[in-house]
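Reproducibility note. Readers wishing to regenerate the assembly model reported in the main text can use the exact inputs given here. Chain order matters: entities are listed in the order in which they were concatenated for prediction.
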Amino acid sequence: MLSRIMRMPGQPTRPLLILDLDETLIRATMTHLSHAPDFVVFDYASYCRPFLSSFIAERSTIFDLAIWSAGTPEYVNKITERLFPVQIKPVFVWCRDRCDPFVYRNTEQLFYQKDLEKATTLGYPLSRIVIVEDNPINVQNHSGNALYISSYQGDPSDRELELLGSFLDQLSKHPDFRTQEKRYWRSTSL
Ligand SMILES: [Mg+2]
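Running the prediction on these inputs yields the following structure tokens for the assembly.
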């Protein structure tokens, strides 16, 4: 492939999987749920989404992993430390300061958008970047790169990451993620 031939030395060869944190990988709340939290950070009881450990471990064999959250650096770094085992290093952990504030006109609600062009400066082409996000507004300018997951509120029977993992592994085989149908990832295979 031309893109392979033209790849510069030092440029990443694996696809990039960017993960949102809150309500995607964890539920962090000041109000404890009926079951015990996995850990507490800055008074937030934090509940990991089921299958999170295996999701990270298995995807790390195929993807370069990254975290991009609209949280503060202190919060995001602390949570990420708890989620990633020492042998798996995210290629970046980006926080609110890397997001672009956006006010939704209908509700005047403030969102923090994630411009995936920023990740291309690290050598990843947009065709090989996928982001998992619970809020479509945060990535509305890159919907072709996005996989939307339900908002995790702490349900211990949630299976989203288990299902999403096998879909992502199939997606990784395609040269351009943006051209693949991703809306029905729970029930279809590529
Ligand atoms: Mg979120």
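We highlight two features of this model. The pocket of magnesium ion is lined by residues 20, 22-24, 134-135 (CB under 6 Å). The two ends are 21 Å apart (CA to CA).
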